[in-house]
Amino acid sequence: QVQLVESGGGLVQAGGSLRLSCAASGRTFSTYAMGWFRQAPGKEREFVAAINWSGSSTFYSDSVRGRFTISRDNAKNTEYLQMNSLKPEDTAVYYCAAKAGGSYKYWGQGTQVTVSS
Questions:
Q1: Residue 5, CB-side half-sphere exposure with 13 Å CA sphere
Q2: Please, what's the largest Cα pairwise distance for the chain?
Q3: Is residue 42 scored above 80 in pLDDT?
Q4: Chain-wide mean pLDDT for the chain?
Q5: pLDDT tens, 81-104?
Q6: Which of 64, 74, 99, 113 has its CB 3.0 to 4.6 Å from that of 30, i.e. a possible disulfide?
């Protein structure tokens, strides 16, 4: 089992940047593929980005590709999401998740990102 805690959310103007962090504890972090998801008010949770266990492969949703960068530091048991050129439509609660057994099994509590226009 792994415990996940997100941080780094906040209020930013459109065009600005934020970096989210996801600190993991528990079982070996490097054994998990990791992802970021978000949920805006009144909408379903959606996939944002994912990274494999080593960091050699990354995947992005069309809405964030080219603006967001997912990364990880296995020595620090931490996953990151660098978000640039933020738009008001990026406003949401962002969640990190760890993949086990083919599905995202472990979730953090979320961190709020608000982008003002």
A1: 5
A2: 41
A3: yes
A4: 96
A5: 999 999 999 999 999 999 988 899
A6: 74
Can you give the pLDDT at residue 27? 67
Q: How far apart are CA 117 and CA 105, in angstroms?
A: 35
pLDDT tens-digit readout, 21-34? 999 997 688 889 99
Q: What sign has the CA pseudo-torsion 71, 61, 44, 105?
A: negative
CB neighbourhood size of 68 (10 A)? 23
Q: How many other CB atoms are there within 10 angstroms of residue 57's CB atom?
A: 10
The average pLDDT across 2-14 equals 97
Q: What is the DSSP string of 41-99?
A: TTS--EEEEEE-TTSS-EEE-TTTBTTEEEEEETTTTEEEEEE-S--GGG-EEEEEEEE
For residues 91 and 111, the answer to whether their CB atoms sit within 8 Å is no
Location of structure tokens 């998740």: 97
d(CA 117, CA 111): 20
